[in-house]
Amino acid sequence: MLLKLENISKGYANPVSGNFQPVLNNVSLEAVEGESIAIIGPSGSGKTTLLNIIGSLDRPDSGSLYFRNREITSFSTREIERYRNKDIGFVFQMHYLLPQCTLLENVLLPTLPDKNAKDARGRAEKLIKRVGLWEHKDKKPQLLSGGECQRAAVVRALINNPGLILADEPTGALDHENALNLINLLLEINREDNLTLLMVTHSQELAEKMNKILKLQDGQLVVINTVQKS
Fold first, then answer.
1. Cβ(64)–Cβ(7) below 8 Å
2. Would the pLDDT of 146 be above 90?
3. Are strands 196-200 and 62-67 parallel, antiparallel or unpaired?
4. In 57-94, which positions are buried (b, 16+ CB within 10 angstroms) versus exposed (e)?
5. What is the pLDDT of residue 194?
6. What number of helices (H) and strands (E) belong to the chain?
7. Residue-wise pLDDT tens digits, 164-208
8. Partner of 93 for a Cys bridge, out of 8, 71, 169, 181, CB 3.0 to 4.6 A?
């Protein structure tokens, strides 16, 4: 089992009334290596909150999170930072590439904390070639299209060989053609590298490309559809 959530709950205080508002209510989830999972649900249902907890960008109020049988919720700050950097690859709706850096430099950013990273540049160059961006490696983001920037963001997410890719509306800022191209790229990597892909999306069309579709509503996860991984 790559990822396991047990009874995760999370809520926030309403900034106006001060009343506590539950967002996630005893959510449980399991994901195996190489699985692709789409999470759908209405706006405000807690999809991003759930991804943030899995990626340790936020902590649950209660419940446990396990990654490769390690209980992440009990980690120290330093252990969480390493988990976030080495085990998880993030792809957000906006690419968040640094405008002052070239595409190659942006891809290499996650490797900087690891002084022992071997051949990071060589790996970055191979990944950039793999997604068809080699001729753009020395360009800065403002000279790239939206689709090219998102492909670069995918490469950045892969640079440290993570076991899990968390994609939060990764196609939200793209047109339909570029959205399909990006999802097909993520699924190609999911299959060829046996990487687990967990994606939040509002698109039913894109969700149906995944092995499993889960719906988050009223703080609960419900299985909508499951396709056996080939």
1. yes
2. yes
3. unpaired
4. eeebeebebbbeeeebbebeeeebeebbbebbbbbbbe
5. 94
6. 7, 10
7. 999 999 999 899 999 999 999 999 999 999 999 999 999 999 999
8. 169
pLDDT tier at 13, thresholds 50, 70, 90: confident
Distance CA 196, CA 136 (A): 28
Distance of alpha carbon 215 from alpha carbon 230, whole angstroms: 23
d(CA 158, CA 194): 12
The residue assigned the tokens 């687990």 is: 196
What confidence score (pLDDT) does residue 45 get? 93
Q: Taking residues 91-104, what's their average pLDDT? A: 96
DSSP SS3 for 110:
helix
Q: What is the CATH number of the domain that holds 198?
A: 3.40.50.300
Please indicate, yes or no, if residue 150 is contained in any of the structural domains: no
Number of domains in the chain: 1
Tell me the average pLDDT of the chain: 93
Angle at 147 between CA 97 and CA 189, to 5 degrees: 90
SS (H, E, C) 177-212: HHHHHHHHHHHHHHHHCCCEEEEECCCHHHHCCCCE
62-67 vs 36-40, strand pairing mode: unpaired
Residue span of the structural domain in which 89 resides: 3-97+161-226
**DSSP secondary structure letter of residue 15:** T
For residue 230, pLDDT beyond 60: no
